[in-house]
Design a protein that fits this description.
Keywords: Cytoplasm, NADP, Oxidoreductase. The chain is α/β, with parallel strands linked by helices. The chain contains 14 helices and 28 strands. The strands form eight sheets. Strands 16-19-20-15-14-22-23 form a seven-stranded mixed sheet, with helices on both faces. Strands 11-10-9-12-13-26 form a six-stranded mixed sheet. A four-stranded mixed sheet has the order 1-2-6-5, with helices on one face.
């Protein structure tokens, strides 16, 4: 039963084309043009969204600026109250939003529902965390610095940045949008959202939940359209005071072009799984499958290279293969484990990596199989560093295994990557695990579990080309604020006596 664009969501649809959201209203673009969203499973146009113009972006930025001034004066508890309301509405409407995720990005049905529920929880937690951390400031006294007496009191607090531009990726168009929207709003900023083309309709439904919650007009906007028309225009717009981006290489280009504004970026990874001889091999195999193949490997935190000690490699490969056979491959509506990858060009790219590995002599644990955008899960054993797949991020259900003879070899491979998002190490020896974690140049190391961003209040950051800054609810709220100080200068030193 199709629910998207119906009921309370009917007003976001204009005939065949989803409207964009500006100044508290759902509008059709003056361009008269739309952008097609192709269903990865059927490879046919599923939805259409407005192709917004630069002039429309300008108007959105102006409205965001005005709305932010009033919002910054809105009491913190009231901001939190509205966020809690939006979270509840979001969860109430999980079915139509999940339906969009299934159709636009081929997310397995159950995972699509989880994404929306997780998003509601994230927004609620953000509201609570914001009240906790933004309700406090600091008092500093001058006599801690040499040459000063206590005649200056410094009051510092966190204030909003202004207009935050949020650009989430296709793989979590709802969750990685609210992980930016929630912190921005609770901190007193306004928010302009540019969703990915695939995932845009899910994002528009999510934005409507914020609209229904009753946020002031202009505070949140959502513009859709072609990157070539409005992409650079948005990221280089003088009205933007902060950019929070999750995605691929585009982030590097954005960071070079953006003005003097704080950037929060998460740009992918080549997360290594290092398994030592003393590891629980069943646990290793289970996490390789979960970490490498959930959502068909289309997660920045997916396990993307297995670095395994030669002595346990055969056993682990066998266990992984036994699990891969059991994965259900097919359309997302059937709640398959492996679903079509997001676009034909992604599938072609993955295939290119697989063929390169084949030419260079990797062992195929399964036969390579592809139908349209659907690629069957594939484990490539005996991968060597001269193969592209040893270094590049497939973002698909294909996983290389590199056999190593020492832990140092594994750490060396991990650190030679230009990425540094997460990694994981499997061992029963906590002392070794800590040493390896410290040696791995990644933002996070998971001990005895696959990499993952959540729980969503944990710090989440990448080193090197994997990103700038740290995310996670608390860090994102802090990142979307700046410090403001007021210094009280007393005519004579004053000391509080006990
Ligand atoms: O794709 C990037 C996401 O931040 C990964 O999130 O670890 O919850 O799948 P996840």
């Amino acid at each position: 039963m199709a629910l998207a664009g119906t009921g309370v969501f009917a007003e976001i649809l204009d005939g065949e084309v989803y409207r964009y959201y500006a100044d508290g209203e759902w509008r059709a673009s003056a361009s008269g043009k739309s952008v097609a969203i192709v269903n990865p499973t059927t490879r046919k146009t599923q939805y259409r969204v407005q192709a917004c113009t630069q002039e429309e972006v300008n108007k959105v930025m102006d409205a965001a600026k005005v709305a932010q001034k009033a919002w910054a004066r809105t009491p913190l508890w009231k901001r939190a109250e509205l966020l809690h309301k939006a979270a509840a509405i979001l969860k109430e409407h999980k079915a139509p939003i999940a339906e969009c995720l299934v159709k636009e990005i081929a997310k397995p049905a159950k995972d699509a529902v989880s994404e929306v529920v997780r998003s509601g929880d994230l927004v609620s937690y953000t509201a609570e965390e914001g009240v906790r951390i933004l309700g406090e400031g600091k008092l500093l006294v001058s006599d801690s610095f040499p040459g000063n007496e206590r005649n200056k009191y410094c009051l510092s607090s966190k204030i909003p940045l202004g207009v935050v531009l949020a650009i989430p990726p296709f793989n979590y168009p709802v969750n990685l949008a609210v992980s930016k929207i929630g912190p921005a709003l609770i901190a007193g900023n306004s928010l302009v959202l540019k969703p990915p083309t695939q995932g845009a309709v899910a994002a528009l439904h999510m934005v409507h939940c914020f609209h229904l919650a009753g946020f002031p007009k202009g505070l949140i906007s959502c513009v859709t359209g072609k990157g070539s028309e409005i992409g650079d225009f948005l990221t280089m717009h003088p009205g933007v005071n902060c950019i929070s981006f999750t995605g691929g290489d585009t982030g590097i280009a954005i960071s070079k072009k953006a003005g003097m504004v704080p950037l929060q970026m998460e740009l992918g990874g080549k997360d290594a799984c290092i398994a030592l001889e003393d590891a629980d091999l069943d646990l290793v195999a289970a996490n390789i499958v979960k970490g490498g193949f959930s959502y068909s490997g289309q997660r920045c935190t997916a396990v993307k290279v297995v670095l395994i000690m030669e002595s346990i490699a055969d056993a682990v490969v066998q266990k992984v293969n036994a699990k891969l056979v059991k994965l259900k491959v097919g359309p997302p509506e059937d709640d398959s484990d492996i679903t079509p990858v997001v676009t034909e060009s992604s599938a072609n790219f993955i295939e290119g990596l697989v063929m390169d590995a084949k030419e260079k002599g990797a062992t195929f644990c399964q036969e390579y199989r592809r139908e349209g955008n659907l690629i069957w899960p594939l484990l490539l054993d005996h991968v060597r560093p001269d193969m592209r797949i040893a270094w590049e991020e497939p973002f698909g259900p294909v996983l290389p295994v590199i056999r190593i003879n020492s832990v140092e070899e594994g750490i060396h491979h991990c650190n030679a990557s230009n990425f540094g998002l997460q990694g994981c190490v499997f061992t029963r020896d906590i002392n070794k695990a800590i040493l390896i974690s410290d040696a791995m140049e990644t933002g996070t190391v998971q001990i005895n579990s696959a990499p993952a961003r959540g729980p969503d209040h944990f710090p989440f950051q990448g080193l090197k080309d994997s990103g700038i800054g740290s995310q996670g609810i608390t860090n994102s709220i802090n990142m979307m604020t700046k410090v403001k100080s007021t210094v009280i200068n007393l005519p004579s030193p004053s000391y509080t006596m006990g």
